[in-house]
Amino acid sequence: MTISTPRPWLASYADGVPVELELPRGSLYDLVEASIAEFPDNAALEFFGRETTYAEMGLQIGRAAEGLRLLGVQKGDTVALVLPNCPQHIVAFYAVLRIGAIVVEHNPLYTPRELRHQFEDHAAKVVIAWNNVVGTIQAFPADVAVDTIISVDVTRAMPFATRALLRLPISKARDSRKALTANVRGTVVWEELLKSAPIKPEIVRPDASDVALIQYTSGTTGSPKGAILTHLNLTTNAAQARAWVPTVTRGEGCVVYAVLPMFHAYGLTLCLTFAMSMGARLVLFPKFDPDLVLAVARKRPATFLPAVPPIYQRLQAAANEKGVSLQGIQISISGAMPLSASVVEPWEKETGGYLVEGYGLSETSPVLMANPVGPTRVAGTVGLPLPNTEIRVVDPENPTVDRAPGDEGELIVRGPQVFSGYWKKPEETAAVFVPTSDDGADWFRTGDIVTVDEAGFVRIVDRIKEIIITGGFNVAPSEVEDTLRAHPDVSDVAVVGLPSAHSGEDVVAAVVLVDGSKLDEEAIRDFARSNLAAYKVPRRVYQLDELPRSLIGKVLRREVREKLTAEAAD
């Protein structure tokens, strides 16, 4: 790869981090296959204490891949995954890729309307789904109906003793069982898929240039769309992550906690692909539960813990309360929202390791930059571009014009981890790329306003895009607004994000009511809850007489945000 722009940040790289990488030549499947060959007897996965070795995982991937092929899945087909963190998720992911098909990840907590929107877009005819969401998929209308649902009971991956406890005739066990699984009909059971013979080596395999994943994102314009990521995009980002932490050894000595959901780009790369490329032990948690994490930490601290600031805070509070030591957690990477010194300092004191902030987007696989894991890190910044990554700061109104060093401007980037475009959306794709003036790739517009200091450290100042980031998830204001406008008491609405000490931003709605109506905040929130995932539901609802608008009638969300910030302070 030819780098044609200045890279002042290279001098601040931590010891052992290369300034440039040779790009991977294989696929994501080649990546996991190499770890299977090198570490066959090592634990690859741990789930509620039950271990799966790399050899066992490889056999399951091969059987599931053949099972999918026999169901008619071919190279280039889309296969939807609607799964929590569980061993079946990893096996399904790599099985789909083994036959050259395309994974489409979904949040299993999405409402029927949200899932349907994405299925309408990617048109997958085969879906591998958690039992608890099978009913939602089966209820899709005929025009988006899938041909085959492969149902997954996550409890089947648990130790026998844990499964036995879930069957006890007591209310706590019944509640836990209901949260983890459900009775379903009319599906292909996951275990049936694994009865297939392992796929033969000569069966078609994916190439580095093939599409591996469609990752849905709110993007930079607010409408959810699928970012197309190739095997090269994702293998490169895993390699960049490995290069950034040269002190972490491959194999049994590497322990990664998957507390982030793997359907999210952040969790997918740092838990699912990076961990497997390291030959690591990946400890899977279906959701973040401090008690479950601490139970593992007592026996085997994480070498590498990617998370978001609220998780670090809750985990440390629980550890202090229960007297559990967090010593031994070597490297913690925070992303998706700002990381404050009030989180970093006590965490590093408690663990004896590093907690550094990174930055990325779904469109960039997702990691673009991170603070050095070492004394050169700079608190309050998102760090330095990863190897093979170029950045510029430009005029947001004319992104072909560079801003002076140190001045605010829009961050544009390019590198081998940057996506090729949005699924079936050529106009939206064209809108986020700036043509290059050299022989390199076009530049991707991040939509973030930044400053870059003399050493190359990047500080996020503001976002051009109005996407709300809450708890590490992107929320498109327009989607929430469209939902709330259907409420009989709401005449107009604007949705914005307000700062939150716990989740980065809170989703907040300003509503104009129909004449004669009175504000019933809980009723509006309940209405939203029936149509939106929980993290998209407004935490607060304010009443305004009217919404500020531009001369052409566009709602000025920035003014709404300023007004609500003032009201919240009163």
From TrEMBL:
AMP-binding enzyme C-terminal domain residues:
479-554
GO molecular function (one): acid-thiol ligase activity
What PANTHER family does the database record attribute to this sequence?
LONG-CHAIN-FATTY-ACID--COA LIGASE, NONRIBOSOMAL PEPTIDE SYNTHASE PES1 (EUROFUNG)-RELATED
Q: Which organism is it from?
A: Salinibacterium xinjiangense
Pfam families for the chain: AMP-binding (PF00501), AMP-binding_C (PF13193)
- PROSITE patterns, per database record: AMP_BINDING (PS00455)
Protein name as it appears in the record? Long-chain acyl-CoA synthetase
Which InterPro entries does this one have? Answer: AMP-bd_C, AMP-bd_C_sf, AMP-binding_CS, AMP-dep_synth/lig_dom, ANL_N_sf, ATP-dep_AMP-bd_enzyme
Q: Where does the record place the AMP-dependent synthetase/ligase domain?
A: 33-423
